[in-house]
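User: I'm curious whether this sequence folds into something compact or stays loose and floppy. Could you predict its structure so I can see for myself?
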Amino acid sequence: MQENLNLDKSPYLVMTRKEWAEQRRDTPMTLSEVDVERLGGLTEHISAHEVEAIYLPLSRLLSLYVEASQELQMVTNKFLGQKQQKMPFIIGIAGSVACGKSTTARVLKALLARWPGHPMVDLISTDGFLLPNKILQERGIMDRKGFPESFDTKRLLHFLVDVKAGNPNVEAPVYSHFAYDIVEDQKVTIDRPDILIVEGLNVLQPARLPKNGGGIPFVSDFFDISIYIDAETNHIEDWYVERFWRLRATAFRDPAAYFHQYSQLSDDEVTATAKNIWRSINLKNLDENILPTRQRADLILKKSKDHSVEEVMLRKL
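Assistant: Here's the prediction. I'll summarize afterward.
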């Protein structure tokens, strides 16, 4: 079970759902019912009410942060007496498998793109920086896919360096959940966005301490703000099992799917198999690598059993 934070010593301002929703102020709802429905995930059907109560206040806060960052860049350039390339504001979103990171990222992308002043918002998942299956098999770590050692961290860091520097047309690899592997002949291009959202399992992990005093950058060093999607472990397990059931009835049925063999499981075997995968791989990764990074986040969204956010924790400045 997850340990509760000691709120007396917490660096966070803790707000109830109602208190957080009040921070929306007069922010208009810019998404239609059709938009909201389209942005939902496989097991997380987000509602317009959830967007209004949680994500509109969050988009307002992020928009204020972006404006402040842009103003700071202008002030710094004025001080240096030079004109530098515009640097994008980067938002990191971390959390467990099946916690709803991708849904949160999609909703924020849609909302932020509608704010004046930063219409170009891009989204990328660190799944694209997983090592190809061939390499994972050679290293004997296919059963540790999603763990820190399964990522091409050097390539991800080079990508973030180029994006943060304002370089044009920065390419990133593409990952297929259907094929369960990197798609070698596909790339996604990020071309100087105002905002880049980066979502992934281990994006808040700290770098190793250097032995010689030299810097060892890590992914979170490039974030202007970071968000952690939190929930009780038993809720996340339920969501994972539910997602497994839905995939068994959809994507797994395609003979070309990597996990097609799971479509042949009996009903009893489906739940048992999903729970086994969760506990032997994903729960282990959560406990060892993901959950320990929670308090490195600037903002924590705590979800209840039905995926709705019940509490928001914002780091005090």
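Summary: The CA atoms of residues 130 and 145 lie 8 Å apart. The helical segments are 17-21, 33-39, 48-80, 101-112, 133-138, 153-164, 233-249, 267-290.
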